[in-house]
Amino acid sequence: DTEVTQTPKHLVMGMTNKKSLKCEQHMGHRAMYWYKQKAKKPPELMFVYSYEKLSINESVPSRFSPECPNSSLLNLHLHALQPEDSALYLCASSPPGTSGRETQYFGPGTRLLVL
Amino acid sequence: GENVEQHPSTLSVQEGDSAVIKCTYSDSASNYFPWYKQELGKRPQLIIDIRSNVGEKKDQRIAVTLNKTAKHFSLHITETQPEDSAVYFCAASIRVTGGGNKLTFGTGTQLKVEL
């Protein structure tokens, strides 16, 4: 398996709902990332996990809660979102390493609409 | 933090012409510079990258140059084809303590290759 996969592809939720996004990779990568991408904008980093530990939280509101249950799986739990949170949520992973030169490979994303 | 500027924001070329996209970065600690191509509704796909100990890299019709002193790097696409039409993002990478890296993206260039 040489790809990052994400489910669901699309998600519509109300502001009182709780939902989760899932990301999976079986490439032996040990760093995983969540990005948010609005239309016609670049991806913006939200969280970085390295060896299943959260290493970066880019001041993301607490209504977004990441979880890394194991080295292959990354979740993003969503609760009480706002309409402005509607976006494409991208997951990425990168091979083991500490040089900062590791390539990040992106999943296809989950397109989220908050009503 | 790191700041990446990218120009132009849109670029229209005739099929067979060359296209050049330029980026500058601010943080001298950045040591890895990937370029991603994103087609509408698709994931960002790595097309070429360059590490800070290299000045130039070429892969068929695509080349990237890096000037660390001036803190700028460029993407060159020769003999453009209609399938090259997409949004191109440059990025600068800084290592994250404990593993992984933090990508800061440029604002993107919409490339259109006309027949």
Which characteristics define this entry?
heterodimer, A: 115 residues, mainly beta, 7-stranded mixed beta sheet, globular, B: 115 residues, 6-stranded mixed beta sheet, 5-stranded antiparallel beta sheet, 11 strands
Order of helices and strands of chain A: EEEEEEEEEEE
Summed over residues and divided by their number, the pLDDT of chain B gives a mean of 96
Which sequence of SSEs, written as H and E, runs from N to C of chain B? Answer: EEEEEEEEEEE
Low-confidence stretches of chain B: none
User: Assembly type of the shown chains?
Assistant: heterodimer
* Number of helical regions of chain B: 0
Uncertain parts of chain A: none
First-last Cα distance of chain B = 41 Å
Spatial extent as radius of gyration of chain A = 13 Å
Radius of gyration of chain B: 14 Å
Q: Could you give the count of β-strands of chain B? A: 11
Largest sheet of chain A: 7 strands, mixed
Residues in helices of chain A, as a percent range? under 10%
What percent of residues of chain A are in strands?
Answer: over 45%
Largest interface: pair, residues per side: A-B, 32 and 29 residues
Number of strands of chain A: 11
Main sheet specs of chain B: 6 strands, mixed
pLDDT average of chain A, as an integer?
95
Residue share in β-strands of chain B: over 45%
Total DSSP helices of chain A = 0
C-alpha geometry of chain B? globular
Explain this structure.
The complex is a heterodimer of chains A (115) and B (115). Chain A is mainly β and 115 residues long. Helices cover 0% and strands 56% of the residues of chain A. Chain A has strands at 4-7, 10-13, 18-25, 31-37, 44-50, 53-57, 64-70, 73-79, 87-94, 105-106, 110-114. In chain A, strand 5 and strand 6 form a beta hairpin. The radius of gyration of chain A is 13 Å and the shape is globular. The termini of chain A are far apart. By secondary structure, chain B is mostly beta strands. Helix content of chain B is 0%, strand content 58%. Chain B has no helices and eleven strands. In chain B, strands 2, 4, 5, 9, 10 and 11 form a six-stranded mixed sheet that branches. Chain B has a five-stranded antiparallel sheet with strand order 1-3-8-7-6, with no helix packed on it. In chain B, a hairpin with a 4-residue loop joins strand 7 (62-67) and strand 8 (72-77). Chain B is globular, with a radius of gyration of 14 Å. Classes of the chains: A mainly beta (115), B mainly beta (115).
